[in-house]
Amino acid sequence: MDDKECDDMILKAAGWLSKAMKQLSCSAPIAVTSTACKKLKNDDLAVLMSEAFHLVRFQNEKLKQLKTTLSATKNKLIESQQSVISLQEQVIDCKDKQLLAVQTTVKSTVEDSVKEQFKSYSDAVQENVMVCKPDSDSLPVGKLKDVVREVAHEEDRLRSVIIFGVPEREPANLAKRVEEVFNEMMVRPSIREISIVGKQSAGTSSRPIKVKLSSPSIVKAVLGQAKLLRNSDKLKSVFVKPDLSIEERTKRRQLVQDLKQRRISEPDKRHYIRGGAVHSEDIKSKK
Predict the structure, then answer these.
(1) Phi, psi values for residue 264, rounded to 5°
(2) For the chain, which end, N or C, has fewer CB atoms within 10 Å of the first or last residue's CB respectively?
(3) Cα-based distances in Å from 277 to 63, 158, 223, 251, 285
């Protein structure tokens, strides 16, 4: 049903109401009662009833059409949302493949360069008829492996978040527990891997859960929703944080210690961590 049909239906209903109120001598719709209707002659009442019947029938048919159209629109909307999600996953997978291809190319190029330099070094030694014990420290192959390992670890870290405060239950169902946390945050990211950090020991009720996602941008989006957990009744003690490096964890630990000291030394002020530093400000008195 288009706008013109809606307008026609509204005009017909308004015209009938105006006509009925005029014949009943009623100045407002609230005055139209059964007592007022008894004043009409049988012929006038029959005309109004006939018109009312067809008007209601017409409106009922249009409402059925609207229901069908609304259902079809909802289905199309769901299909469109699924298509958007599918396209987003394809874009992410494509970026992952491109990144992997670049990493493979860089690694292969560096290894070929190292091999070529080592070959040139060996040729130079043979030409000068020199026999010497190669210095293992001078060969970059081992360092290359370390660099590649560090790059892979850094990439893995940037794609991960750490969930703290989730109680461990038996049997351990990590996927379900992580899903509960993300549902409370109103996010549904594509999860690549879930693992528990650290070994279980006596007195430990929960261990951090590491969740590897599809890309750093998805990690940023998830962290942006982590604040919703503060208002959760069942998960208010759960925190979602980025996967920090050793240096970042050390710096964060020091910031927390500084924050505690600041709160003790200046209890009349509000202290907080922002931008990698501890800030303090006066507490405004409430009037």
Answers:
(1) -75, -45
(2) C
(3) 61, 22, 20, 10, 25
Mean pLDDT, residues 263-282 taken together: 86
Cβ(85)–Cβ(190) under 8 Å?
no
Q: Is the pLDDT of residue 152 over 60?
A: yes
Kindly write down the DSSP assignment for every residue of 150-173, as one continuous string: HHHHHHHHHTEEEEE-----SS--
- Reference 93, options 162, 192, 12, 184; nearest CA is 192
Count of C-beta atoms within a 10 Å radius of residue 131: 7
Give the helix ranges, DSSP H, for 24-140.
34-37, 42-127
Q: Which of 240, 178, 224, 192 is nearest to 89 (CA)?
A: 192
* Alpha carbons 287 and 284: distance in angstroms, whole number: 9
Least confident of 18-22, 66-70, 109-113, 206-210: 109-113
User: Of 246, 222, 224, 89, which Cα lies nearest the Cα of 153?
Assistant: 246
Peptide bond into 140 cis (omega under 30): no
Which is nearest to 161 in space by CA: 182, 184, 186, 176? 182
Tokens of 261: 């000291």
Instruction: Give the predicted TM-score (pTM) of the model.
Output: 0.44
What angle separates helix 141-158 from helix 42-127, to the nearest 10 degrees? 170
**Rounded CA gap, 208 and 160, in Å?**
12
For residues 209 and 172, the answer to whether their CB atoms sit within 8 Å is: no
In this structure, which long-range contacts are made by residues 47-55, counting pairs with CB atoms below 8 Å and at least 24 apart in sequence?
A: 48/16, 48/19, 48/20, 48/23, 51/16, 51/19, 52/16, 55/12, 55/13, 55/16
Q: How far is CA 230 from the centre of its chain?
A: 16
Reading the block at residue 120, the tokens are 């040139």
Confidence of residue 160 (pLDDT cuts 50, 70, 90): very high
